[in-house]
Write a sequence for this structure.
């Protein structure tokens, strides 16, 4: 299978394994989130999702990985939540506008999602219950970007690991 796409990864430790959740967008024949065991560099599962995805969000203190759906229809208003333990989509949130770049708060208690185009707000959800707790009016929000993300997970490859992948 050949992919002509971009891959973005969000990583988190689950039950002692470092899992990377890779989203695919571009010219792919599957709409999946690829889950990698980053310690073994093996694909664990490909989770079917509602469309191409762009920016996964994961946090050690949150039970879900959030992925925004990239499309030109109503699916672009949605974010799907993948349970980190079962590796299944457990909920789809419709944020009311184009969903961009979900991100967890630094402590992992809240999930922030931009709802641009017609939504014009940032929507805030409780990370555990997935209940909407706030909507912050904003003109054309285009993503949530947190410098806190690197505080809780960074995984690089050594030169030996890179060489073994060739």
């Amino acid at each position: 299978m050949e992919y002509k796409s971009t891959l973005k990864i969000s990583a988190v430790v689950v039950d002692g394994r470092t899992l990377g959740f890779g989203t695919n967008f571009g010219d792919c024949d599957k709409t999946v989130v690829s889950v990698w065991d980053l310690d073994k560099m093996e694909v664990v599962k490909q989770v079917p999702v509602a469309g191409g995805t762009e920016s996964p969000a994961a946090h050690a203190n949150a039970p879900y990985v959030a992925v925004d759906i990239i499309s030109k229809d109503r699916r672009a208003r949605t974010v799907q939540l993948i349970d980190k333990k079962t590796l299944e989509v457990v909920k789809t949130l419709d944020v009311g506008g184009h969903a961009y770049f979900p991100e967890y708060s630094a402590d992992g208690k809240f999930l922030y999602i931009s709802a641009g185009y017609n939504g014009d707000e940032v929507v805030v959800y409780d990370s555990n219950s997935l209940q909407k707790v706030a909507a912050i009016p904003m003109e054309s929000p285009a993503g949530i970007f947190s410098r806190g993300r690197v505080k809780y997970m960074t995984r690089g490859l050594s030169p030996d690991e890179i060489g073994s992948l060739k």
